[in-house]
Design brief:
single chain, about 400 residues, Aspartate Aminotransferase, domain 1, 2 domains, about 40% helix
């Protein structure tokens, strides 16, 4: 019974989530079905996670086959699907080495440690500060939480990690004033996800590149939400004239199976010698088997071009109903005026069979499975229009 899972969930689970009173029991493509058999169009994809939608047959088969063989042995041994996924990521990026973990927060913690270790190995332990930006979101572990320059997430968790300095996003003067003799890296999202789907200005990105070159700083791009085809490129940085020193991945990489990754240039990756960092479950057989399926499908001819095309169509339809969409590919946000409540609209949509998200206080967020069709986008916008 519906009341049963709600009552038991509230009784036994820590209440750190404001859950909707819905429980899903089945998924198929871009659709989910709840305990009552009600059908929902999913345009949230587990918060930009279910790249291939729900119950993708190839993904399910690969996971099942792998589970019948071996799931976990630890990183004391070579793991073939881990090597396969690392090869795909390297050969389709401008980076050289890969470290696997289990989540975006872990990936960003790893990046913070790698920056510090790199400069320590260069004889510059004084270069340990990392600049991040207002509106950014990098995770909820203490290091990644500190890197998240949003005070609302810090309440109750101070003192935070030392060595993180904040600047205003897309504000060149603020960025320049944040650089000190101790600055080691600049860490940012190209499209801020939780901050409200805020794209970076090209002039601001150019200023980051120039400052990094002038002061010998590392560029760390958080691609946890933008990576793995979400913006119409395998990595969002490929839309721009930039090759970062480090990128972090998670969310869409496993298609729903927990996995995170850090890609780095070889000279930087070399600072992680045996014993300096690790992850018990990172890159296990099950997770990397899933990631391999996801990557092979996303990299099929025409797949990413379709993501761009469908994203433009979604923007067009959102504009037609009076919204002001921003973002790239199938990572779209629509900021709302104060008199409209994004959270309430999302609830109304859910009641009418459409799952969307919110971000940045009062922004509607659309991050559907990348397999969504134009017809399904039309279906979703029709529901949204009625709910608006």
């Amino acid at each position: 019974m519906a009341e049963n899972f709600i009552e038991e969930g509230n009784k036994y689970l820590i209440g750190n989530y404001a859950r909707y009173p819905v429980s899903f029991v089945k998924g198929e493509g871009v659709y989910l079905y709840d305990t009552q058999g009600k059908k929902y169009l999913d345009m949230l994809a587990g918060i930009a996670v279910n790249t291939l939608g729900h119950a993708d047959p190839d993904l399910a088969e690969a996971i099942c086959n792998q589970a019948q063989q071996v799931i976990h042995v630890s990183n004391l041994f070579y793991i073939q699907p881990q090597i396969d996924v690392a090869k795909i990521l390297v050969e389709n990026s401008c980076l050289d080495k890969v470290f696997f973990c289990n989540s975006g927060a872990e990936a960003n913690e790893t990046a913070i440690k790698l920056v510090r270790k790199y400069f320590y190995d260069k004889g510059r332990p004084d270069k340990y500060e990392i600049i991040t930006f207002t509106g950014g979101f990098h995770g909820r572990t203490i290091g990644s939480l500190t890197a998240t320059a949003q005070p609302k997430y810090h309440e109750g968790f101070k003192p935070l990690l030392q060595g993180i300095r904040y600047a205003s996003f897309n504000d060149i003067d603020s960025l320049k004033s944040a650089v000190t003799e101790n600055t080691a890296a600049i860490m940012f999202e190209l499209i801020q996800g939780e901050g409200g789907i805020n794209p970076i200005d090209k002039q601001f990105l150019q200023a980051i590149k120039e400052l990094a070159e002038k002061h010998k700083l590392l560029i760390v791009i958080d691609e946890v939400q933008t990576g793995i085809g979400r913006t119409g490129k395998l990595f969002a940085y490929q839309h721009y004239d930039i090759c970062p020193d480090i990128i972090t991945l998670a969310k869409g990489l496993g298609g729903g199976v927990p996995i995170g990754a850090v890609l780095a240039k070889e000279k930087i990756a070399a600072s992680f010698t045996p014993g300096t960092h690790g992850s018990t479950f990172g890159g296990n057989y099950l997770a990397t088997t899933a990631a391999k399926v996801v990557l092979n499908k996303v990299l099929q001819k025409g797949f990413l071009e379709e993501v761009i095309e469908k994203g433009e169509y979604l923007k067009e339809l959102l504009t037609d109903i009076g919204l002001n969409p921003r973002g790239k590919g199938l990572m779209i946000g629509c900021p709302l005026p104060p008199e409209k409540d994004a959270s309430q609209i999302a609830k109304n949509c859910l009641e009418n069979g459409l799952i969307i998200g919110t971000a940045g206080g009062n922004t509607l967020r659309f991050v559907p499975p990348l397999i969504i069709t134009k017809q399904q986008i039309e279906e979703g916008i029709k529901i949204l229009k009625d709910c608006l």
